[in-house]
Amino acid sequence: MKGVIFKKYIGLIKDLNAKNFEDLLKIYQQLLLITSGDFNKTISIMTELDRKHNFTPENYGIGDFIEDLKKKGYVKENSNDQKIKITKKSELELRHSALDEIFGKLKKDKTGSHMTNTFGSSLDFDSSTKPYEFGDNLENIAFNESIKNAQKNYGIENFKLAETDLETYESDQKSQTSTVLLIDISHSMILYGEDRITPAKKVAMALSEMIMRKYKKDTLDVVVFGNDAWEVKIKDIPYLSVGPYHTNTIAGLELAMDLLRRRKNKNKQIFMITDGKPTCMKVGINYYKNAFGLDPKILNKTYNLAAVCKKNGVRINTFMIASDPYLMEFVEKFTEINDGSAYFADLQNLGSMIFKDYNRNKVKRY
Questions:
Q1: How many of the other CB atoms lie within 10 Å of CB of 199?
Q2: Which pTM value belongs to this model?
């Protein structure tokens, strides 16, 4: 019987030198995502890694860590069968952690940011100012800059504040947005020894947390697709796992469109994270599958949906975690039909790219 190989987890954990509970918690959270919320498997991996690499603090072992998880409310033990389950607090902490991780990258690396020269009225102030023009929102007046202008023009003794001295803050006009995040959970998301589903889950958690904090009037629906497509709740994202599925992109797009039809916001978009070609579609009650190349029957239906989305004002942003030339050709044509955007994404920068694109799409252009 082949045992569990723990070596592969070392590269996925940023720091194995834990000094206290908080350091161990970070390692625990990373592994909890990788194991799709399986507490027992997570602790088994931590125990084995500790045995081989001795990363826990002196006089504080994994057993102590488990007890502290219980005391601090991260997990709870069923009194009947003694099974340990993660709590809502753990799910919230996972979203916070994902958000901090991705925003940390955004702050450190500003290359590739999507900027706009279009400004409008808003309460989300930009740091730059412009001369006041008739019709500008008076709430946006930059008083410090306006007073400085008056002092320069008239001096302190003859101080007065004229309309020509006034400056206002520039601000992007933000629109309410409805977004569906489509996540590919087909088998290829874990092929070739590369874990692609964990970064996708982190993005979904971080995006949902950002919207709930910063854009409370926005909506986010999360949909996963394999042979079929189905909606998942935000609280269920940590438990997502890849299955023995083909890639039914058509089912994912159809469900995303159905969800967006119910939303009242005018600004609607789909973010699709995938690493493969469409290989499956449903015909009646049966599945039509072809994993060998790009099948015209499947492609034509996929392209048709891209056109339908465009007609209904739904922009599709595709994040392809692959760089095969024939896949690039498919994505480019799909994007051209929809008039959307496409990125051939690096797993390390996936979150940053999605966050920048999300914010860019919220700015109304005139």
A1: 23
A2: 0.74
